[in-house]
Amino acid sequence: MPGDAQNASKATLIAAGIGALATVAAAIIAAVAASDADSSPPGAVPTSVVGSTAPATSAPSVQPPTGDEPVRFQGAVRLTASGLDLDHVPPSASWEELRFDPAGKGLSVGPAASSAAWSGTSPATRRHCTQALALNPHEPGFSFGALQAGTAFCLRTNVGRVAFLRVRQVIEDVAVLDALIWEQRD
């Protein structure tokens, strides 16, 4: 009988050791997966940034209006202090059109781009944005103050593409925007 007790103790120790190894392995796998998520392309929105509010697999909240012009890019983009070039597909980190100021939580438009506010509740069409940019443009290099979710504006890139952007959320040093960028250049 003493042998049975020793065997049971050994089995318990082995099971505990296997459980501990499985826990360590799971932690390592989670850490590797998290570091892979952080190495996503600059314009992409990893789920670690967006979280449960809007997972990367969700449909963008800015849909092109029916019958509108061909779209070059549509989706969520991540804006940081490195900036964003909206002429690449997907948009890439570069201070071409937009830059985020983490300290003031504001957004600056590049000096070669132009912008105009959009106050409509629905996404703007390309025609709406073109009209807003012609009739009510901001000054070159315009800076939006502290961004709020829902802030929407039209933008003409430095190569003449028109875009509609709406702030989805601001998280520490990142602003997540829904972007709709049309193919045609002006």
Descriptive report:
- By secondary structure, the protein is an alpha+beta fold.
- It folds into two domains: 1-39; 47-185, no CATH class.
- 27% of the residues lie in helices and 27% in strands.
- The strands form two sheets. A five-stranded antiparallel beta sheet has the order 1-8-7-6-4. The protein has a three-stranded antiparallel beta sheet with strand order 2-3-5, with no helix packed on it.
- β6 (152-156) and β7 (161-171) form a beta hairpin.
- The protein is globular.
- It starts with a helix and ends with a strand.
Cα-atom radius of gyration? 24 Å
Describe the largest sheet: 5 strands, antiparallel
Which structural class best describes the helix and strand composition? alpha+beta
Strand order of the largest sheet: 1-8-7-6-4
Shape, please?
globular
In whole angstroms, the N-to-C terminal distance is 89 Å
- Strand percentage: 25-35%
DSSP helix fraction? 25-40%
| Total number of strands | 8
Query: Which stretches are low in confidence, meaning pLDDT under 50 for 5 or more residues running?
Result: 19-60
- The total of helices stands at 3
Task: State the domain count.
Answer: 2
Keywords:
2 domains, alpha+beta, five-stranded antiparallel β-sheet, 186 residues, 8 strands
List the helices and strands and how they pair.
Blueprint: H1 2-38, H2 47-50, E1 71-79, E2 98-101, E3 106-109, E4 114-117, H3 126-135, E5 143-144, E6 152-156, E7 161-171, E8 174-185
Antiparallel strand pairs: 1-8, 2-3, 3-5, 4-6, 6-7, 7-8
Offer a concise description of the structure.
This protein has helices at 2-38, 47-50, 126-135, and strands at residues 71-79, 98-101, 106-109, 114-117, 143-144, 152-156, 161-171, 174-185. With 186 residues, the protein is of the alpha+beta class.
